[in-house]
Amino acid sequence: MADVKLENVTKIYDGKVTAVRDVNVDINDKEFVVLVGPSGCGKSTVLRMIAGLEEISLGTISIDGKVVNDVPPKDRDIAMVFQNYALYPHMSVYENLAFGLKLRKYEKKEIESRVQHAAKILGIDPYLDRKPKALSGGQRQRVALGRAIVRQPKVFLFDEPLSNLDANLRVQMRTEISRLHHQLQTTMIYVTHDQIEAMSMGDRIVVLKDGVVQQVESPLNIYHRPVNRFVAGFIGSPTMNFMSGSMDTNGKLMFHQEGSTFSIQVPPSYETRLKPLTNKTVTLGIRPEHIYARRPAGVDTISSFNARIEVVEPVGNEIFIYFSTGTGAQYVARLATDTPPAVGTDFEMLIDTSKVHFFDKETERTL
After folding, report:
1. pLDDT tens-digit profile of 46-67?
2. What is the average pLDDT value for the chain, to the nearest integer?
3. In the sheet that 4-13 helps form, which strands lie side by side, from edge to edge?
4. For residue 18, what are the contacts with CB-CB under 8 A and spacing of at least 6?
5. Which residues, in sequence order, are bridge partners of residue 10?
6. What pLDDT, on the 0 to 100 scale, is given for residue 1?
7. Does residue 283 contact residue 230 with C-beta atoms inside 8 Å?
């Protein structure tokens, strides 16, 4: 198959609007890489430049060791699956799958073999005689995937292919695409704004913001070791809680939230890095699952604080508790269903100080 290499890739529109800036990413052969970020961050633009649908302003893109900056899309040996299924409504499923191969003058036997193989992989072989209007949304998306599979390309490109599906179908199709990757052993590059899709599907994630790559890592490394506040807040649902405060020391290094009584002892692993910031403002981050209503077994690094319960939100196997600490800002904890405090009450919450993150107030980089 093929690796994909982006070196200093930049896209500037009209000579003044920089949509993508200095993207450097190496995608290995057979790897599943997800480009994720909020709307307008440049992820689809990067994908379209790899596909050849957008010209590159600066930098180079290589596929299988060959620079493809000036290679037309049809000669890049890639297949792209779009958010819109883009199926021909007057053609059957079989004809939709075969159409691209017919344009490339493949023999009928080869077309038949490839279409049947793709249809069997995707479980759409019973529907080959149907028109797209007779298919469900999930079945149409499978046909769109099949149209890419029959090409047997070096690289698959996915541009938010599940956005038009309902929640249950999205989960199902996530699994289907991951299974396809393991089965086909092909390089895949996937664009989404949904961080759950990114976390559950990618071998590695590329997080973008304002056209700039923030971090490239495995899903769990990004989740547990974000390089800055943006990545920490974007990856994870519910999002990480952030508190602005200051450091002081009176025998122990302590973090105090501005405008409230919230304070915790800084864990030993942070002391060396944070002591130079004594009496300076920093940002503390803590994920909802590391805040508790009662002391968890085997956890020694616990600090407590008083919270006012604002909202209790049951979501089935867990409860989201929205609370405040006196500043007016709202935070969230993820608790077990057997420990729901009542709305409007003051409650002692516990925090695992070994799980906190600290960020520089000015640069927002992880300390």
Report:
1. 999 999 999 999 999 999 999 9
2. 91
3. 17-27, 4-13, 58-63, 66-67
4. 10, 11, 12, 211
5. 58
6. 59
7. no
Q: What is the dihedral of CA 173, 179, 181, 185, to 10 degrees?
A: -160
How far apart CA 367 and CA 361 sit, in angstroms, is: 10
Q: How far is CA 262 from CA 304, 305, 307, in A?
A: 8, 6, 9
How is the chain split among helix, strand and coil, in percent rounded to 5? Answer: 30, 35, 35
Amino acid at 108: K
The sign of the torsion formed by the CA atoms of 91, 94, 96, 102 equals negative
Distance CA 357, CA 360 (A): 10
For Cα atoms 227, 230, 231, give the angle at the middle one, nearest 5 degrees: 50
CB within 8 Å of 51: residues ≥ 6 apart = 73, 76, 78, 80, 157
CA distance 251 to 246: 16
Q: Report helix, strand or coil for 121.
A: helix
DSSP string, 327-357: SS-EEEEEE-TT--PPTT-EEEEEEEGGG-E
pLDDT value at residue 132: 93
How many of the other CB atoms lie within 10 Å of CB of 102? 11
CA distances from 112 to 102, 116, 161, 363 (A): 11, 6, 26, 57
Contact of 330 with 310, CB cutoff 8 Å: yes
- Residue 362 neighbours by CB under 8 Å, 6+ apart: none
Q: Give residue 156's pLDDT band: very low, low, confident or very high (50, 70, 90).
A: very high
Lookup result for tokens 């995608």: 27
Residue 67: CA count within 13 A, CB half-sphere: 8
Whether the CB-CB separation of 210 and 234 falls below 8 Å is answered with no
| 128-140 confidence digits (pLDDT tens) | 999 999 998 889 9
Q: What's residue 221's pLDDT?
A: 96
